[in-house]
Amino acid sequence: MTICSRNRRAVFGKIVDGEMILNDWGNIVAECIANIPNHFPDIGIDKSVIMPNHVHMIVGIRSNYENGSSTACRAPTTEKFGTPVTQSIPTIIRSFKSAVTKQINIINHTPGQSIWQRNYFEHIIRDERELNRIRRYIINNPAKWEYDRENRNGIPIDEKKKFWNRFLDEFD
């Protein structure tokens, strides 16, 4: 999963020497990520990283962890006629975003202010090789921030493209 802040504003902290330094909002996000399995017992967070303006998470189905695999085969991902489905990805993400937004709005005295971009990006991980590649991407994301597509103040776009092409080629 990738979830972006509203207008992709850098609101969760900053990158210093390749390390993410969370601010108060970023700490709330970290706490809410850690609490996802408490609210959704069949869900585990394999890896996650909070960036200045987005969050990456690998979300896994707990029963698959127990079987020695961290990839999901039967995660419910859809809703039925607009009704939330328990343990579905949309329900989990909606709950996470809502919890973060509520806590931030309480400390800022800004009821109803939106923190997140509408929707989120998801990708189904199909095998162990892909899982390991995405884990490395998440772990290395802060160190690569100056080249990140989401970093509006980073390296110019042509240099970013060259970097990402080289970076992704290393893991194919």
Topology:
Layout: E1 2-4, E2 13-16, E3 19-22, H1 24-39, E4 43-50, E5 54-61, H2 62-66, H3 89-108, H4 128-140, H5 157-170
Antiparallel strand pairs: 1-5, 2-3, 4-5
- The rough form would be described as globular
> What is the CATH class designation?
Alpha Beta
Class computed from helices, strands and strand pairing: alpha+beta
Strand tally is 5
- Unreliable parts: 67-77
Radius of gyration: 17 Å
Largest sheet: 3 strands, antiparallel
CATH superfamily: Transposase IS200-like
Indicate the CATH topology: Alpha-Beta Plaits
Amino-to-carboxy terminus distance: 21 Å
The strand line-up of the biggest sheet is: 1-5-4
What fraction, in percent, of the residue positions are helical? 25-40%
Q: Give the H and E element order.
A: EEEHEEHHHH
Our count of helices gives 5
Fraction of residues in β-strands: 15-25%
Q: Give the name of the CATH architecture.
A: 2-Layer Sandwich
Round the mean pLDDT to the nearest integer and report it: 84
Quaternary structure type: single chain
Q: What is the number of independent domains?
A: 1
Overview of this structure, please?
The protein is globular and about 45 Å long. The strands form 2 sheets. The protein has a 3-stranded antiparallel β-sheet with strand order 1-5-4. A two-stranded antiparallel ribbon has the order 2-3. It has a single domain, classed as Transposase IS200-like (Alpha-Beta Plaits). It is built from 5 helices and 5 strands; from the N terminus they run E-E-E-H-E-E-H-H-H-H. The longest helix has 20 residues, at 89-108. The protein is of the alpha+beta class. Helix content is 40%, strand content 16%. The two termini are 21 Å apart. A hairpin with a 3-residue loop joins strand 4 (43-50) and strand 5 (54-61). Helix 1 runs antiparallel to helix 3 (89-108).
